[in-house]
Design goal:
The protein is mainly alpha-helical. It has a domain at about 25-95: Orthogonal Bundle (Arc Repressor Mutant, subunit A), CATH 1.10.10.10. About 55% of the residues lie in helices and about 10% in strands. The protein is built from four helices and two strands. It has helices at about 30-50, 50-60, 65-75, 75-95, and strands at about 10, 20. α1 (about 30-50) packs across α4 (about 75-95), α2 packs across α4 and α3 crosses α4 (about 75-95). The radius of gyration is 18 Å and the shape is elongated.
Length: about 100
Amino acid sequence: MAKYRRMRPVLEGDDGKTAHQEPDTKVTPEYVFDRRLRLERVNQAFLQMPLKYQQALELWSDGNSYPEISEILDIPLGTVKSHIRRGREMIHRKLGSSFDID
């Protein structure tokens, strides 16, 4: 559920700073179509899980920390961790172990 593409580091330049380059991915119509299908499957699996797991996963995927999620949902920190782990496991079980979103 990464929102941002990671840049690959490149060797340090003459100025002592690390340069970056874009990942080597060719965006073809087939790639876009396949990615949309995969994201739709993830979304369907997400919507089928209980609301308590959806809430924790959505807050986590938005970049909130476990303590922040605990405060927002007014539940113990351990429960937040459990909800996120169980929610992720539910999605993986629905999609199969070979499913890769990237």
